[in-house]
Amino acid sequence: MSSTLLWFQALLVFISLASVMAQNIKVEKTGFDRVPDKLFYFQGSQVALWFDAGARVLWRSSDQGKAWTRVTDIAENEPSFLYEHPFDNEKAYVIGKGKVHWKTVDRGASWQKFETPIEPAATFPHLSFHAERPNYVLFNGFKCNLGGWTGMDCHGEFYYTLNNFEETALLRSQATYCIWSLSSAAFETAPVKEVMCVEPAKKSGMASMLEYEELHLVQSEDFFKNEQAVNFGSTSEVRGVIAISAVNRFLVAAIKPKPSEPDMDLQISLDGENWHEAIFPVDAKLVHEKAYTIVESTGTSLLVDVLDSASSTVGTLYKSNSNGTFFVKSLENTNRNQLGIVDFERVQGVEGVMVANVVSNAAQVKAGSAKKALQTRMSFDDGATWSPIQKVYDAQGTLLKCSDGPDKCALHLHSVTTPRNNGQVFTSKAAVGVMMGVGSYNDHLLEYDESDTFLSTDGGLNWKLVRMGAHKYEFGDMGALLVLVDDEKEIDHIWWSKNRGNTWERYDLGISIRARYLTTDPTSSSSKFLLIGSSRFSNERVQSFYIDLSGVFSHKCELIENNESKSDFERWFARDLTSGPDCLMGHEQMFYRRKADRDCYVGLDFQPPVVELKECPCTEADYECDYNFVRDGDKCVRIGPDVITKDMCTSRNSVYPSSSGYRLIPGNTCNAEKGKKLDEPVDRRCGDNEDASYAQPPRPTQPMFDDEIDQFVYFKESPAMLLRLRNGELWSSGEHGIGWKHVLQDKGVIRSFIMHEFDFNRAYALTDETIYVTSNQGAQWEEIKVPLAPTKHIALALDFHPLEKDWLLFIGDSTTVSSQSEMSSDCHSQAFYSQDQGRSWRPIATYVRSCLWGRGGTMENTDENSIFCEEYQEKKGNQRSFISNRLSFTSSNNYYSSSETLFDAIVGVAVFGKFMVIAAVSTFLFLPPSIFLHISMDGKTFAQAAFPASLNLSPEAFTIMESANSMWIHVSTNTHHGSEYGTIFTSNSNGTYFVASLENANRNEIGIVDFEKMQGIEGIALANRVSNPNQANMGDPKKLVTMKTADAGAHWFPLTAPQKDSKGKNYDNCKRGVDCNLHLHSYSERRNTRDLFSLSSAVGLMVGVGNVGPSLSTYRSGDMFLTRDAGKTWNEVYKGAHLWEFADQGALLILVDDEDPTNVVKYTTNEGISWQEYAFTTPEKRLKVEDIITQPDGTSQKYVIFGTEYGSSNVVAYHIDFSALHPTKCKLDLSHPSDDDFELWSPEDTRGEACLFGRETKYYRRIQDRDCYIGEKLVQPREEVRNCACQQEDYEWQV
């Protein structure tokens, strides 16, 4: 048989196979009059919008372009612009040419009309969006007023809406640009309602808006009822602000300080409050107006391209450190166009890989003697180094070579300055490692129509010629599908590949078109594509082809992790440059992607790829220069003195721990133990530190306070503190009590302060007449004008909304004196609400006892604006003297324009976790009043709590204790003074049915119960039980025994006593195994109820004062006991009763004598195995300690001790810093857990099985004897290992 015949038969087989495959491709064609001016898919859906701006027509497809329908909800000939919401994939907006516009909240299925007071502006964008609140939108409009001596006054105006254009209000007139501070999803540190605007300082119509030297930046948190100019740390007003922009986690402002000069400054902020100037290298070109472009940046740095000269379109790319302060040169001679668009793109889905084009003949171009010769460079280390693409192969797999020499030629690619398609140029996020481009293998980039199409499947390391000529391309099914269409001429077919470009198949379209768009869903995870082209051979000028390639595969791919040869997926490592790990930001990225030769589809439509991070040893690349240091070559050099405390230097020859000049880049996850530790402190001579202070206070004590301490608290997740004295003085400390500042000194007596429950920067100080607020953790305060004096009759005069941080409820006292007697006056409490942080108030109700927002606790199903109040039914007389006036419980969803009475007579209301609890009074004929509890999880539907039939609640007889997934209630069965006790009941999961959990549970005379849940582990609790109830009823002292539950109250057991005490001796005061158990002093005896047995971050650890014996003895005779396994086993760790406090997530425990004056604390770093003492003052100034506190999350190693000096009335706060105890940070190595400083541990249930609530859960805990500090908060639990076999204890009852 001849070779020609063989070839012909093979061709027939190929054509036959292609025909069979084509039958599995579904294509639908739709005709249009014009190509779309804008086309986009709603993220995570099949819905697409096609906007024809010329015809002012909008089309919608619900099936990725298979069928299109014209949107008829929008008036004809009106649409001018189409906007997709960047933070809400359900919303889009059509801006009309006048004051009428349209919006959709269901991906275009329906459209609603809305109006704005003015027409849209001529400048873009018309809409600015809020990253956290999708309904918060700014509208940019334009307004002209006719008449007057000027003839016409035209200017821009910005409007805002908080409810998606249901209502609009004027934000700012004559502003050139406004944005929400929270305009980027990565920028999270600004107030929710803060807006920043660039506007003229002197407003005089359109002319002033064009005078750039008069523009300044203003910001406001209440839509400019109050405002402040942003002066970037300067003491004088800063003008010449050209622009403000949110870039990832940075705010960037461009300022032209001198009108006559082109130079500009860039100011950077991470919080919108504190700004610093961007510092470029000494040899850097000056930043000029319209001469810089911030290119796609990550959260760890900013990338800024600066134009080299006004006469060229050549720039230099600079990269910043993590806070955007210092910039270093990354790439010279970058290519840009006249619009400032830079040939730069980040490879999607893979960290640190970038593509850019440079001008190889920049000198000639700047001189005007040559056209640009572009070359492509790639970086695989986030811009630290760049290199040409030289590993390029032809279609047969042969390495391309250049006739002029191996280093003369490389692959050069057309980039974003010459866009030929929608979206990213080279990559898609879901198609990991797959890149395509149009370019040429030469000494420079050829024209587009002289270029060919290339493919890389390893993230840009190697490239292959896949098709001669320039083509549009698109990725599908996470890179399993590739589609090409000719982009140089009319064609009647496409090319597609399902094996990552190894072979290509042709599909005929049946009509010739000139391709205009080739696209798919934004994630490139679908198998459906949309091709749009113009045609001369059909009635419609434009044809849209819906191409479904999902049928070309035989089955769905299967991931078999433990058998890579059988698995359809392979592990692919990003940036595989070397034989070892290729790391960036301390880790190596590993992805699962489909093997190229597998005939299967991935099928994870609209989902991101699966990625794993492998930890790497630290290298120089993982560090940046610390504060007061800048990079000089490959070193960080000092540029200023260290900021040190006065006690660190006693003389010029003393040494102190100084920065090495390096710090780990924030977010970097490298392992310093296995690599380089460049950030360890170095000893520095005090004389070498300019402006150092050498005075040495003898001890770390602070100025004495004039009175006893009434309140003290940390701001959550912060070292800042507030402290109030009994005489009404308020003190603030910014750093764990190191220094104290007396605030609001001339504002009168501070009666109390309240921390904002949901905004950890705010606190409120209450005087007899008004309220002061801090929004920066006590640094500054401002007055809130309140309509009445804050109430003195309830604990909290304010309530806070969990979603809207500026929404407040306030209760004030109103008094109209009718006679000489205060008790006969018309004194009552009145409630008000504010939606602007107290700048304006509106009344709600009078004669109230309390009011609260319906979204309290973790209740999530209540209306956002719902309010509940306790109101007295008869609204007259003196509220303080009410005895028989009934208290009702009311609610409203319209700020009490109307209200509903939910309960006519109540004792009280409280919100615990997800439960709202109402104690309602019910009276029956001839029977005394009874209390019934009603429970709600949404504030709308209340169910009466069902207790055993014999139980009768009285107002003074029950205590609701801390609740999360179920409720715990203590009901007193004996209320005789000195012998109070009762039964603890626990509820089912919705809080409606209660059963007895523990009888004879101890409480004191004010209702405080000896009950405490373990923090951090659900289901474990301790309680004290009265073991002699009959004798206690007769007047004998109560004998208390401590019980523990590990199954949320289903079963209780005594605490097992340790075998020996802390001295190694046996306990001789009890009979082993009979009545020899451990008993602990609990809530009812504590001075401060915030002192707990456990800490949520110190998982498994509990500590308390107690004794071993038949029952609990006196506090003074107690010793210190500790458990590290959630109460299963206990050890006596120190003799004598002490106050205690955990720190560093349990790695540090401190004890201090609270019975006798002392000048020392005892501390352990190994959970009580050994102890050391530290003298925090001299013996002569020993302290009667009142309390010891640290940061509530337990991650700090700093404490504050409060007390009174022995022999005097001086109240003192001591700051103690244990940070220097451990020079080494604990190592957590997920890849090699046997080599790190942590162990995995599981708590056990009452059966001794490592299961709680049906699951075995693993937690990290530091190995007991490791000499290291933990530092950053560990994510707990680590993992849920398995589901346990169900036992009777795992079920709740059903009634």
Descriptors for this entry?
Sortilin_C; 1295 residues; 8-stranded antiparallel sheet; repeat; membrane; 7-stranded antiparallel sheet; mainly beta
- Protein structure class: mainly beta
What would you report as the Rg, rounded to the nearest angstrom?
36 Å
DSSP E strands, number: 94
**Fraction of residues in helix:** under 10%
Average pLDDT, to the nearest integer?
83
Could you describe the largest sheet, including whether it forms a barrel?
8 strands, antiparallel
Overall body shape:
globular
Keywords: Glycoprotein, Membrane, Repeat, Signal
InterPro entries: Sialidase_sf, Sortilin_C, Sortilin_N, VPS10, VPS10-sortilin, WD40/YVTN_repeat-like_dom_sf
Subcellular location: Membrane
GO cellular component, one term: cytosol
Describe the structure.
Pfam families: Sortilin-Vps10, Sortilin_C. Residues 681-701 are annotated as: Disordered. Residues 47-691, 719-1294 form the VPS10 domain. It is found in: Membrane. InterPro entries: Sialidase_sf (IPR036278), Sortilin_C (IPR031777), Sortilin_N (IPR031778), VPS10 (IPR006581), VPS10-sortilin (IPR050310), WD40/YVTN_repeat-like_dom_sf (IPR015943). This protein is mainly β and 1295 residues long. 3% of the residues lie in helices and 38% in strands. The protein is built from 4 helices and 94 strands. The strands form 24 sheets. Strands 77-78-79-80-81-82-83-84 form an 8-stranded antiparallel β-sheet, with no helix packed on it. The radius of gyration is 36 Å and the shape is globular. The N and C termini lie far apart (87 Å). 42% of the residues are buried. Mean pLDDT is 83; it is low at 1-23, 147-151, 205-209, 691-701 and 816-824.
